[in-house]
Amino acid sequence: MVAFKSINEMTIEERQEILSAVVDTLEETSKEASLEGQGTYAENSRNLALAISGSADDLATDELDAANILLQQAMTMISQFRLRHPYPAASLSIH
Q1: Which of 21, 60, 62, 71 ranks highest by number of CB atoms within 10 Å?
Q2: Cβ-count burial 28-59 (b if 16+ within 10 Å, e if not)
Q3: Whole-angstrom Cα distance, residue 14 to residue 71?
Q4: Single pTM value for the model
Q5: Using CA atoms, how far apart are residues 88 and 82, in angstroms rounded to an integer?
Q6: Which keywords does the record carry (predicted)?
């Protein structure tokens, strides 16, 4: 069984990994949304990814409350996008 940890229980390395994974997912869904004509989501997702990646060091070490809020917001956005678009684009390339 996988044990879940809160952001406060994670090591700095674990926090950095989760922040990086969330940024990658936000960027990926931003690209998918852009291709599907969902400009507002694409822009919001991209901006949240930039906010998290730009502050990743502080979020992983000192700003745990802010990290928690940003991660919750990111997960909500990603979940809502996946509910509306359950099948990711097979390819992000444009021909």
Answers
A1: 60
A2: bbbebbbeeebeebbebbbebbebbbeebeeb
A3: 13
A4: 0.83
A5: 8
A6: Plasmid
- Give me the pLDDT at residue 93, please: 57
Read off the pLDDT of each residue in 27-46 and give the average, rounded to a whole number: 92
- Is the pLDDT higher at 93 or at 57? 57
> What tokens does 56 get?
């990743």
Q: State the virtual CA torsion across 67, 4, 25, 32 in degrees, nearest 10.
A: -120
- The encoded tokens of residue 72 equal 């919750």
Q: Which burial class, exposed, middle or buried, applies to 19 when counting CB atoms under 10 A from its CB (0-12, 13-18, 19+)? A: buried
